Every structure is written in structure tokens, then in C-alpha cells.
Amino acid sequence: KVQRSSSSGGLALDPRAPQAFTQVQAQAVALAAQREAHAGRAVAIAQLVEAGKLSYDDRVGKILPDYPNKAVAEKVTIHQLLTHTSGLGSYWNAKFDARRAQIKTVADYLALFADEPLQFEPGARFEYSNSGYIVLGAIIEKVTGKSYYDYVREH
Question: What H or E segment, with its residue span, contains residue 16?
């Protein structure tokens, strides 16, 4: 059973439900939650652009000067993160599988992929990237001074 999480406001599995989900069912729930989270980040970014706090053309490094991957910091724009043209891949990897139960914050997610090289030159093509939307969450946190989850709840 899928329910709205009281802690994050997103979708989560009901902990009282039988845990007999197949891998496909678990991925379907994860994708539904991901879609909802992407919409929240996109709206939050649009609000911050409208408020003049950032631009779609800003590079990651302008807002996150300490971002650990210098290629991402120097080359990737907010627009590219939003449109899945950044060159970032997916954080659904071995690190994610090993740490899944401990992941709670945007920083926890960043640790899964921030050291990974770009998969292609930013802007060169479209390729779905859930990692890009995590970077957007970090940008929202930096610009607002609030956790991503608190900002979305308030706005």
C-alpha cells in the first residue's frame, strides 16, 4: 500500500503493509514518488527564478561553489538539470542499494553520485536523470536556507 509520508510529504510504502512487493512493484512506487518529487523541485525552482533569486542559466557552481564535481559545477546549468540534459545519470546504483534505509536528506542522496563523471557533455542530448533533480534540491536548500522538504511544505 502506498501512502503519503508525513515526514517528507512524498509517497512512501505503508510500513504496516505486507512486504511482499515484487521488484517491479517497488520500482513502480519509486517512480511515482520520483515524479511527484520532480514536480515539486521544478515548481520551487520556478518560484525562486520568479523571485529573482536565481536564473535558469546559472551554473551549479554559482549557487553551490563547493560542489565536489568541478565539471558539473562549471558546465551544468539549472535549465539542463530541469530538462534532463545535464549529463548526470541516475543515483539508483550500488551505493543506493547499500544505503537505501539511511537516506533521509538531499545531502545523503548527493553522496551517492556527486563524484561520478558526466555521462555526456551538458546540453548534448536528453537522458533521464534523477540525480539532476537531487542537485536542484541542494540548490533550493542553498538559496532558501531551508531544507528542501521544509521549503516545499511551506510553499
Answer: none
**What does each C-alpha distance from 84 to 14, 34, 102, 135, 145 come to in angstroms?**
30, 14, 26, 12, 25
Helices 23-50 and 130-144, axial angle in degrees (round to 10): 40
Q: What's this model's pTM, rounded to 2 decimal places?
A: 0.75
Cell matching residue 109: 542522496
**Residue whose C-alpha is closest to residue 141's, from 44, 33, 61, 52:** 44
Query: Computed from CA positions of residues 56, 40, 113, 122, in that sequence, does the dihedral angle turn out positive or negative?
Result: negative
The length of the chain, given as a count of residues: 155
Extract the residue ranges of the chain whose pLDDT is less than 50.
1-14, 18, 21, 24-36
Q: What is the DSSP string of 124-140?
A: S-----HHHHHHHHHHH
Tens digit of pLDDT for each residue in 30-45?
A: 444 444 455 678 889 9
CA distance 16 to 93: 27
